[in-house]
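Aim 2, interim progress. The first record below pairs a target sequence with its structure tokens.
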Amino acid sequence: MVLTLRYLSPMPQRRVARRRLTAADWAEAALDALRDEGSLSAIAIEPLAARLGATKGSFYWHFANRDALIDAALAGWEARSTEELTEAVAAGEDDPAARGRELLRTMTGLAHRDPTELALLAEAGQPRVAATLERVITRRLEALAALLETELALPREEARSRALHAYCDQLGRAQLARAIPAVLPEAADDEETVIDSAWHSLLGAAAGGQRGA
């Protein structure tokens, strides 16, 4: 009996479709690198490609150069910050105190959880970074000062001064919390306590007054 060997072709492998990276993916990866390293120098094409599991060709499909990527990353952060501020302004419309706390939480609370702003402040010597920070911070200060002026009847210059003081205080607290947390009291880890203290300071009242006042 003659056996006939039949050639069996291998089963075709199913190719898993891979999502094509977008410019937004690259911009977000650039912000992630900035957060991790705290410096614009962390935004480099080859390390980002490795982070994304992509090639340099993917990068150049979306961006002409590294500067264009940095511009996109800054624009993305600014757009996100503006959206968060808009939502905070709309929150608690019938309660100035609630709206003020929400504004403070948006303006400064993120700095305690997200190092992006602190990293950008460290790079403010770069003109493009400084311009972005100026626009974002100016919008935040104007929103908080407007609340103090219109809802709480503070004079315009006084409202602006208090808003700036609160903002600087919270950014400084966030910087200490990341750099040398041991110098801060344990209460500084509680966001609501921090927000309460900042709100009472804005009103010129003693920190630690009744919450909701």
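The second target in this work package is listed in the same format:
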Amino acid sequence: MSFGGLFDVRKQLTFYGAYHSNSTNIAIHVVCVPLLIWTFQVLACDIPVPSSFPNIHYTFNDYLAFDFNFTFIQAALYLAYYYALEPTAAFLYTPQMILSVLTAQSFAHKADHVTIAAVVHGVCWIAQFIGHGVAEKRAPALVDNLLGAVVLAPFFVHLEVLFALGYRPEMHKQLKNDVGVEIARIKKIEGDKKRAAEKKEL
């Protein structure tokens, strides 16, 4: 994906959607992606922060806490990008991201947080690869664009839920059409490569 289309929500979601058109695979991602983000945030709390960072910590209760660390920075950068892509959807996603950060930062203070987060994280990745291999029958988006896939995934599944609830039907219809065209283009390229390889073998 070129830099010129980095803030074009239609191009970005078409790219990601072309790898996630199967309903079973999408359902797996709707469940697993938020867990992947949350467990990553738990683990990121253990990354040492520079001494120049503000030393801010506040515990709301046994389940919610806030620390100025890399988990907070990751969430802030993701949200900033989502607001640039689609402000209304990003606004609706903000409470979910805030809750994810606060619960992750609280959970990170538990003694066994690394083991639990790592196991859940690994299981979710395995489930998603199964979704791609068995249901989608196509490699995940991260094979072609690691950064774009990892950053877009939470917003994509959030929008899938919003679309299912009736959010911006015209945008949804347009994206489905764009994804269909992109999938057809990719299949043509893959078919051409396969035929070229077969000719070389003859």
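Helices lie at 9-17, 23-44, 70-85, 87-107, 113-136, 146-164, 169-201. This observation will shape the mutagenesis plan for the next reporting period.
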